[in-house]
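ugh ok fine here u go
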Amino acid sequence: MCYEVGFVIVESMSAPAPPAPEARPTAAGTSTTTPAPVPSPPGPARRPALDWRLRFGALSLIWGFSFLLIKVGTDGYAPFQVTLGRLLSGTAVLAVAMAVKRERLPRTTRTWGHLAVAAFFLNALPFSLFAYAELTIPSTLAGICNATSPLWGMALSLVALSEDRPTRRRVAGLGLGFLGVLTVLGAWQGFSGLDFSGTAMALLASLSYPVGWIYVRRTLAGSGSSTLALTGSQLFLGTVQLALVTPLFTSLPARFPLLPTLAVVALGALGTGLAVLLQYGLVTEVGPTTAQMVTYFIPVIATAAGVTVLGEQLSWNTPVGALVVLAGAALTQSRPRVRKAAAPREPAAFRDRGPHQGPPRGSGRTHRDRSGRKAPAQP
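structure:
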């Protein structure tokens, strides 16, 4: 879920986050994109009331439980209705945040056009695909499929982004990650017992996120609007898209069951609205590298929630394959350490003389005597 908004992180919630994204290359092709810094008013920075570690944990739990909430929501509503309710609730939360901070909406038609495309790939399409996928696959599998987004992102960035160069480590991570996917799916068993359509939709949803990120990096960098304004506008456009599509495939619900309704509202207000604000705060405070680590907790929490709350069955290959996927994703996003340039070595003539000796003969240098005055170089 951390890739659902094109201005946070992880590349998200990474999040679901926020000024126009800075065109900074990442291994996954998603900059989970790093928001450009927002000019802040002069004066001391205000320290957040809640420690960033607690907010990081809350964000992990919110996104990890999102797949459970999707599953519960589809028990009472059609997948498009779940997605529409989710986007509507998330947009309402961000609209309140924008009103409180007095954010201005983007002004140019060009920006709104790019936001409409971003909303399709980062919100409308993946949200709908995950909702349809969970009609036939467990929420645990959906959460693990979501963790493949960094792998898809890295593969796409090698083709679409000229600044991302393949390295042995990143290629090895890509191969390891997809080996983990095959482990999760039980390839050695001929994928027996696997629902192909549901799994394919979940994997396609995870692929949609990096496609959206790459588009955002190419079109919306330096747009001049704040990240919160761009994200709120993007969710609004995603809501409009679903509002136009949903009546074509579903009819108005005859009833509003309590538990699925609460699940859909929580999915949007927490998993799409509040999560964006949390992730944006984390990126601003601790940087995108630390904030995007939430990606690796999401499938773990999603699996635990599905097994303990929904009673979903779990075979050994699911957690083992998930760990392999996460290890591969971590490799694709790692970068080699830049070695510091070695300090210039002092010429041997200077190095070999004692601390109380002057420069070597003929150096032309001067030294200071005990009084601090310059004296001619000693012969």
